[in-house]
Amino acid sequence: MKTSAEIRVLLKNKEQVEAVLRALAHEEDFKKRSISNIIKNGNEIVIKVESEDVVSLRASLNAYLRDIQVIEGIEKELD
What we know:
Helices cover 46% and strands 30% of the residues.
Protein backbone atom coordinates (compact mmCIF):
# COMPACT_ATOMS: atom_id res chain seq x y z
CA MET A 1 0.00 0.00 0.00
CA LYS A 2 1.49 3.34 -1.01
CA THR A 3 1.10 6.09 1.59
CA SER A 4 1.96 9.78 1.71
CA ALA A 5 1.75 12.75 4.04
CA GLU A 6 2.61 16.42 4.09
CA ILE A 7 3.76 18.70 6.91
CA ARG A 8 3.53 22.48 6.54
CA VAL A 9 5.51 24.76 8.84
CA LEU A 10 4.95 28.53 8.76
CA LEU A 11 7.99 30.50 9.92
CA LYS A 12 8.57 34.14 10.87
CA ASN A 13 11.01 35.21 8.18
CA LYS A 14 13.29 34.06 5.36
CA GLU A 15 16.32 33.76 7.65
CA GLN A 16 14.42 31.33 9.86
CA VAL A 17 13.29 29.40 6.77
CA GLU A 18 16.91 29.00 5.62
CA ALA A 19 18.05 27.89 9.09
CA VAL A 20 15.29 25.28 9.33
CA LEU A 21 16.02 24.02 5.81
CA ARG A 22 19.66 23.46 6.76
CA ALA A 23 18.64 21.72 9.99
CA LEU A 24 16.22 19.36 8.23
CA ALA A 25 18.36 18.60 5.18
CA HIS A 26 19.96 15.52 6.76
CA GLU A 27 16.59 13.73 6.93
CA GLU A 28 16.32 13.65 3.13
CA ASP A 29 19.42 11.42 2.98
CA PHE A 30 17.61 8.45 4.56
CA LYS A 31 15.87 7.13 1.46
CA LYS A 32 15.54 3.46 2.26
CA ARG A 33 11.82 2.81 2.64
CA SER A 34 10.46 6.31 2.19
CA ILE A 35 11.15 9.30 -0.01
CA SER A 36 10.93 12.83 1.30
CA ASN A 37 11.21 16.27 -0.24
CA ILE A 38 11.44 19.65 1.46
CA ILE A 39 10.06 22.60 -0.48
CA LYS A 40 10.45 26.27 0.40
CA ASN A 41 7.33 28.33 -0.28
CA GLY A 42 7.88 31.91 0.94
CA ASN A 43 7.93 31.78 4.75
CA GLU A 44 6.57 28.23 4.72
CA ILE A 45 8.34 24.90 4.49
CA VAL A 46 6.45 21.96 3.02
CA ILE A 47 7.72 18.47 3.82
CA LYS A 48 6.33 15.72 1.57
CA VAL A 49 6.89 12.08 2.47
CA GLU A 50 5.93 9.02 0.39
CA SER A 51 6.36 5.43 1.47
CA GLU A 52 5.40 1.90 0.54
CA ASP A 53 4.07 1.19 4.05
CA VAL A 54 2.56 3.03 6.99
CA VAL A 55 5.32 2.04 9.42
CA SER A 56 8.09 3.71 7.42
CA LEU A 57 5.87 6.73 6.70
CA ARG A 58 5.27 7.20 10.42
CA ALA A 59 8.98 6.79 11.20
CA SER A 60 9.90 9.48 8.67
CA LEU A 61 7.21 11.85 9.91
CA ASN A 62 8.30 11.32 13.51
CA ALA A 63 11.90 12.15 12.60
CA TYR A 64 10.86 15.42 10.97
CA LEU A 65 8.49 16.30 13.81
CA ARG A 66 11.19 15.66 16.43
CA ASP A 67 13.57 17.96 14.56
CA ILE A 68 10.89 20.65 14.26
CA GLN A 69 10.12 20.32 17.98
CA VAL A 70 13.80 20.87 18.83
CA ILE A 71 13.97 23.89 16.53
CA GLU A 72 10.81 25.29 18.09
CA GLY A 73 12.26 24.84 21.59
CA ILE A 74 15.47 26.63 20.62
CA GLU A 75 13.47 29.45 19.06
CA LYS A 76 11.45 29.90 22.28
CA GLU A 77 14.66 30.05 24.33
CA LEU A 78 16.07 32.78 22.08
CA ASP A 79 12.97 34.99 22.31
